[in-house]
Amino acid sequence: MLATMIYGEHDVRLEEVPDPVLSTGGDAIVRVLAACVCGSDLWPYRGITPTTAPRRIGHEFVGIVEETGPDVQNVRVGDFVIAPFYDCDNTCINCRNGVSTSCLNGASWGAEDPFGAFADGGQGERVRVPHADGTLVSTPSQPEPSQVPGLLALADVMGTGHHAAVSAGVTTGSTVVVVGDGAVGLCAVLASRRLGASRIVAMSRHADRQELARHFGATDIVEERGDAGVERIREMFDGIGADCVLECVGTKESMDQAIRSTRPGGIVGYVGVPNGGAELPIRQLFGRNVGVNGGVAPVRGYIPELLPEVLSGAIDPGRVFDLELPLAEVSEAYAAMDERRAVKVLLRP
Amino acid sequence: MLATMIYGEHDVRLEEVPDPVLSTGGDAIVRVLAACVCGSDLWPYRGITPTTAPRRIGHEFVGIVEETGPDVQNVRVGDFVIAPFYDCDNTCINCRNGVSTSCLNGASWGAEDPFGAFADGGQGERVRVPHADGTLVSTPSQPEPSQVPGLLALADVMGTGHHAAVSAGVTTGSTVVVVGDGAVGLCAVLASRRLGASRIVAMSRHADRQELARHFGATDIVEERGDAGVERIREMFDGIGADCVLECVGTKESMDQAIRSTRPGGIVGYVGVPNGGAELPIRQLFGRNVGVNGGVAPVRGYIPELLPEVLSGAIDPGRVFDLELPLAEVSEAYAAMDERRAVKVLLRP
């Protein structure tokens, strides 16, 4: 089959790789219908995190179950399934605590699983899923083609934006600022609206992203950054800042922006993968009682809650996909996101 | 009157200073009945934070109102009052948000207030309180002498331990680890019991503090620190750590202990004044979804909730005072705490 490999900076290639084979009893083979490129895939693509050897890449996909191991019970051949961006058993204590990203038996896509077998990357034609029952969520029936982007968003960005909002304690009446206008930041706006925020500020300088942010529920747009951005936010919220600030980028600058935009006693909910070795300035947090909560989003647990709303059209996170390409053009997909010509690219094998 | 001055390392002196004078309309003069030395007072005493010029010190006291300005309404001459470790108006937006430590008009003891008048330090005979109505909480009647230590604990340590627990989200059934066996750590044990924790581990190597921790509700004692301490805690809690870890010291080592003792998805509630420039390791927090919440404790807001339980004897945080000295021996009070001969010293002017 064909799957995407990353070789190094600005070098991704679609290549012939071995077909996946069932091996652990509880696994399944999924034929990928749609996959996508993640903002975090751009770190190795940009060479910010080095690629020491060619490897599979991609961790967001939806598709059809083609085969299941003899121990699989919840998922059936022919099901349309959503895969979160990681594999988990959904039964261990961390999964039961709602932190399936810390599954004691979990695996990453494009790497060896705990059984010693390979779990394929998501940007390919097929993927072997180690814990099919724990990882995959079937839709109640076959979705319409128009619903696929929204369902694919549940694999990562929608659940991740939701995690930012949940981690920051967004609830009815909260004031919210979202730092980051990528797909996750935009989904964080949508999640905040859904959770009842009274006011949602999207920090963005791009007209197309501002428009989508407003569509998702942003009540205000702030274009300023740094000190000017902090000043604008404080002005908007009684001179002190917002209740909840959602950090959806992962740089030192964006975290600084988030912390300083939060009111005393407020919370930063963060989901941006930390880059650049930034540490959190504890004295600044301490003096103002600003909490920092979040991390790698346990999206598997959020799918059952969000799926019905995607299927009903109550939320349409699939709108973050503003470019569709065949898998054969995966290299162009990376380039388009790298050059910010696209918010998020959907790939069809 | 007499008040305590700090001159530098290991150098505190009781000296004659000007009597306080009412000046702002909303202020009061309190005659101090009991004061105490805080763990954070030891930072300048030990020279870890330098003292550039002699200054007043002390920020915990209870006493009797002797005079009030014409605008004071809630507090009356003759009232027994508890002062939190800071002055606040209790009406600004930060106070209304429960973060009175960030009061927009607040003041610190032993420093100039926003009106340009002086707010005395707590380790003295009298204190001018800038916002008497906002800051002071009167007891419903004159307390018994035996109740004074418990009431004094509400000025800082009990409210601060409570804030650690609240910030970490301690609730019915929570598993809790308390890092730090000083007065605040011991009060954090008591606060956790009060909030319904199912299991409370006190990390302590001192027999007397272990005993008090057990009296306050600790179910387990762990003497190990560092890697061994983390391993013991993880062993006790399903191999993953505790739901809530209360950091009540403020060093890099204690915060590291706290973070690594928290289960994925758990929260560190921290109240130890950060020292040594330690920053929070964001990648470690991110990967395990460990939140960090807390800061300088807004104890003023907690007094109304905790006061009735101190008066009824339901909680007895006054037990943290294991040495009483006359104010004249303030220098010995600092030395006893510095040398860990006492957990916390109560001073009587």
UniProtKB/TrEMBL annotation, chains A, B:
Alcohol dehydrogenase-like N-terminal domain sequence ranges = 26-133
Q: CDD domains of this UniProt entry?
A: FDH_like_ADH3 (cd08287)
SUPFAM superfamilies registered for this protein in UniProt: GroES-like (SSF50129), NAD(P)-binding Rossmann-fold domains (SSF51735)
Q: Which UniProt keywords apply?
A: Metal-binding, Oxidoreductase, Zinc
Cofactors per UniProt? Zn(2+)
- Family, per entry: Belongs to the zinc-containing alcohol dehydrogenase family.
**PANTHER family given in the database record:** DEHYDROGENASE, ZINC-CONTAINING, PUTATIVE (AFU_ORTHOLOGUE AFUA_2G02810)-RELATED (PTHR42813:SF2), ZINC-TYPE ALCOHOL DEHYDROGENASE-LIKE (PTHR42813)
Q: What name has this protein been given in UniProt? A: IMP dehydrogenase
Species of origin reads: Cryobacterium tepidiphilum
Q: What is the lineage of its organism?
A: Bacteria, Bacillati, Actinomycetota, Actinomycetes, Micrococcales
